[in-house]
Write a structure and sequence with these properties.
By secondary structure, the chain is mainly alpha-helical. It is built from 13 helices and no strands. Helices cover about 70% and strands about 0% of the residues. The longest helix has about 40 residues.
């Protein structure tokens, strides 16, 4: 994700492949987030995957999307940081700091108002840590990426051991989550805000445990990749893309299939067994392999067919707007203060709705860019970011 924030580039100088990756990744993000906004604050429930069609849809999302696309966004966040911090000068660092502050504010609002599983706040905090590496050599940055990945692996391994020894009672749903489910189904807008506030710290801990270490590692890899303009001329790195595609898909898909199977086992106890948590943790730990396979395969595709994914390229310039827009539309469709569909649909239907919302927002951005050069929230964030530079000049 830039990831979710956008690099301050002139349209003529933009690299098209990162935009295509972002635009496509938005689809992966919405199908993963949708169950938490439409089915349960915990995601999938036994009832939502009771039919073979629903279980297959849940398995497909877990296999192909969960944990993968936020890593691609994370890589692109580090990659695009190079366009703001060009020579590690004071002006560039100030712009980057202000961008992080803007993301933190938007992330906090997103978590309270729309989706407790927000990642913008995480990006702001990890981005602050990334700033410590801006003046460092590639070797130091890559070593830091390796250390972050090892720490993430050890942490998740420790959590797996703890959860595996926990009792069913200890793994039962938190009463605060049950209260959030009730508020999402029947409460007012303010009831939902209060219910989200009660689970925010736990959600933040869970997101940090599952995502931060590997996301920061991807930040670091993206920072080095941006310095070397890896995504500018894809043909220069053709052997790398081929290796990533082959090994990433051949190894990543079976590992993710196994993790997805574990995640969805348990029948009436789905989501409350140690097996489910182990599957989720293993899925996040091995997600970088499949994410790398996706990037390699898509790079090969673009080299062979340059117009491939052109339909999602424009939306890649407005990922902040669309990320928040996805949560807004889904909230209005499913929450009790909107159309009130929360908890009424199975996974297959929810996934279909999510894809339709993504397609509708993609179309809206095509229409928007006929008149404007930036997405609305991208414009707002850039105005805030540039205001600090003007004060320095």
């Amino acid at each position: 994700m830039t990831s979710i924030p956008q690099a301050a580039l002139k349209p003529a100088s933009r690299q098209t492949f990162p935009d295509k990756l972002r635009g496509l990744a938005l689809l992966g993000i919405i199908v993963v987030n949708a169950p938490f906004l439409a089915i349960s604050a915990d995601g999938y429930t036994p009832a939502s995957v009771a039919s073979p069609v629903d279980w297959t849809a849940a398995f497909g999302v877990t296999l192909l999307a969960q944990g993968k696309f936020y890593l691609i966004f994370s890589f692109l966040f580090g990659y695009s940081a190079n366009f703001i911090i060009r020579d590690n000068d004071a002006s560039g660092r100030l712009r980057f700091r202000r961008r992080l502050v803007g993301l933190a504010v938007l992330g906090l609002a997103h978590a309270f108002l729309l989706f407790v599983g927000d990642i913008l706040m995480s990006y702001a905090l990890l981005g602050a840590a990334l700033m410590l590496l801006f003046g460092r050599s590639d070797r130091v940055v890559l070593r830091t990426a390796a250390i972050a990945a090892v720490v993430a692996t050890l942490w998740l391994g420790a959590l797996i051991l703890v959860v595996s020894s926990a009792s069913a009672t200890e793994l039962a749903a938190d009463p605060a989550l049950l209260n959030l489910n009730s508020a999402l189904a029947n409460g007012s807008f303010f009831d939902v805000i209060l219910a989200r506030a009660q689970v925010l710290s736990a959600a933040f801990f869970l997101v940090g445990s599952l995502q931060w270490g590997l996301a920061f590692s991807a930040f670091c890899l993206g920072l080095v990749g941006g310095r070397r303009s890896m995504l500018s001329d894809l043909s220069v790195h053709r052997p790398l893309w081929r290796r990533l595609a082959i090994w990433g898909l051949v190894i990543g898909l079976p590992l993710q299939a196994w993790a997805g199977w574990l995640t969805l086992q348990g029948g009436p106890s789905l989501g409350t067994t140690a097996e489910n948590f182990v599957g989720t943790a293993v899925g996040f730990l091995t997600a970088p392999i499949l994410a790398a396979g996706y990037v390699g395969a898509l790079a090969l595709l673009i080299m062979r067919r340059p117009r491939a994914l052109a339909a999602v390229q424009e939306s890649g310039r407005a990922t902040l707007t669309l990320y928040l827009g996805e949560s807004l539309v889904l909230s209005l469709l499913f929450c009790g203060y909107g159309f009130g569909l929360f908890g009424t649909l199975g996974v297959a239907a929810v996934t279909g709705v999510a894809i339709a919302v993504w397609a509708g927002l993609e179309l809206s951005m095509h229409l928007w860019f006929r008149r404007f050069r930036q997405g609305p929230l991208e414009w707002l964030l850039n105005q805030w970011t540039r205001a600090g530079s003007k004060r320095m000049s």
